[in-house]
Every structure is written in C-alpha cells, then in structure tokens.
Design goal:
single chain; Nucleotidyltransferase, domain 5; 277 residues; alpha/beta
Length: 277
C-alpha cells in the first residue's frame, strides 16, 4: 500500500482524475479520502509506478515551478514579458532531449517509493528534486537570454527600417547571390560590388552578429538599393530572414534565373576541380 498526500481535497481530486486516465490500473486499487490517495497493489511494480509518477509531477508542477523561478529571479519583467519567457521555456523543454530531465525525476521517485509507504507530493518536489529544479533554473536563464537577444534584435530591425525609410537610395538595383552562408553583391550590370569593410561606417550594425555577412549588410545599408534581388542557391537562413525584414518590399527572392544558374555552375565546377585534385 502507498499513500499520496496532496495539498487539499481539490488538488487531490484533480490528481485522482489524472491517475485514472494515465496510470496502469490493472494491478492496483485506488481510494481517495480528503487530501490523500491510497494505492493498494496486487504486485507493486516500482519501476512502472515511478515512471507514471514522474510524468504526473511534470504535468502538475513544471509550469508552476518555472513561474516561481521567473518571479523570484526576474521579477522586473512585465507580466507580458514573463508570459513570453514562459512560452520560450516550454519550447526549450520540448525541443531538448527530455530523457535527462525525466530520468532525474524518475530516479528520485524510485528511490523514495522503494523505501517509504507514503509521499507528501509538495514536500517531495520541493526537497527531493534538487537536480530537476537546477535543470529548470538553467532553462529559465536560457529562455531569458533568448528573450533579451530577440528583443534587441527587433529593436535593431526597427532602427534600420526607420533609417531606410528616411534616407536616399544610392543604387537602383543590387543583386545578392547567396551560397553556403556567403554572399556576393552585384550591381545592376552584374558587376561585383566590393563590400564595405570600413568599420567606422558600420554604425548601423548592432552588437548582435548574424553571420560572416555583416560587411555585406553594411554595404547594402550604405547603398540602400531601391530593389534588392536575393539569389538563393541552397537554403535560407537567419541572414536572409534579416534582410527580408529590413528591406521589406524592396526584396525579391530568386532561385532560378541567369544569375542563379551562372553561380550554380561556377560552384559545381569549383567543387569538381577540388575533388578531382
């Protein structure tokens, strides 16, 4: 027999409903009384029970624990900002390998239930899951850093958009050929444009480094073309997304034209010569 003690009868009934839907009930009987749930086992499968209890803890506690960490360490953010960071935490936890997090809880639960006949769930989460709580602390810090970087990125984009809308263009058309995270700038006559690497002119670049194409971006910001044709020879990435946000309606994306084919052929020739040698 094993008894689970909850904070109050309302929570006990919520947990009881969860158990009925998610636990393997074929080898146990459940009874609920006030703020406690008692399990009577025909054959106590500690591993299975610990696994299901781990999922129960994540389901009922994880979001609340993250909110507590945010309120404790990042109280200076607005409610709207905290909600955005909370969503980022959940995305990180969904995208990361969750096995490590689940294993930390499982091992603690298994060790506890094999040596005890009852569990105060709130106390267990607070005092027995320190490793799991450290993981959540790390995830919250990561989510906050991502939020700050993204906020600065958006401010940077807005600044450049304002600059472009209030400045005079120095070029009618510029072609940007993009291959393997590297860019080549061409003028309207398809002649190469040297990138602007004079750092004192790079006043519109932020401290955020998008890629090795920062100098190309600086050149585009100095020339401010009325039309920017981006020829993508493999895949779009953050740099291309940034250009689209900055230059907005001035951007046209191309994947199959005379310029595209020319540089595709040149790239293929270079690769062939490299492998042949």
């Amino acid at each position: 027999m094993f008894t689970l003690i909850l904070e109050n009868s309302k929570i006990a009934h919520l947990v009881y409903s969860y158990i009925l839907k998610n636990f393997n009930l074929y080898d146990m009987n459940l009874t609920i009384k006030s703020n406690s749930i008692t399990f009577k086992f025909k054959n106590f499968d500690y591993k299975s029970f610990s696994f299901h209890m781990s999922n129960l803890i994540i389901y009922f506690y994880e979001s609340t624990l993250i909110k507590k960490i945010l309120k404790r360490n990042y109280f200076y953010f607005s409610d709207f900002e905290l909600e955005s960071i909370l969503k980022n935490c959940k995305l990180i936890l969904e995208n990361e390998d969750s096995n490590h997090k689940n294993d930390l809880i499982y091992l603690s639960v298994f060790d506890y239930v094999t040596n005890n006949s009852y569990m105060n769930l709130d106390g267990f989460v607070q005092f027995r899951l320190k490793d799991y709580l450290e993981v959540l602390d790390y995830v919250v810090d990561l989510a906050v850093n991502n939020f700050i970087i993204n906020r600065e990125y958006l401010k940077f984009i807005e600044l450049l958009q304002e600059y472009i809308s209030s400045s005079e263009s120095k070029a009618e058309i510029i072609h940007l050929v993009y291959l393997k995270n590297e860019s080549i700038l061409l003028d309207e006559f398809k002649n190469p444009i040297p990138v602007d690497d004079y750092i004192l002119d790079a006043k519109y670049l932020s401290d955020i480094s998008f890629s090795s194409n920062d100098y190309s971006l600086n050149t585009l910001l100095n020339l401010l073309p009325k039309k920017l044709y981006i020829h993508i020879l493999d895949e779009q990435d953050e740099f291309i997304d940034t250009l689209k946000k900055i230059f907005k309606s001035r951007v046209s994306i191309c994947c199959d034209c005379e310029i595209c084919n020319l540089y595709k052929d040149a790239s293929y020739t270079i690769q062939s010569e490299h492998f042949d040698s």
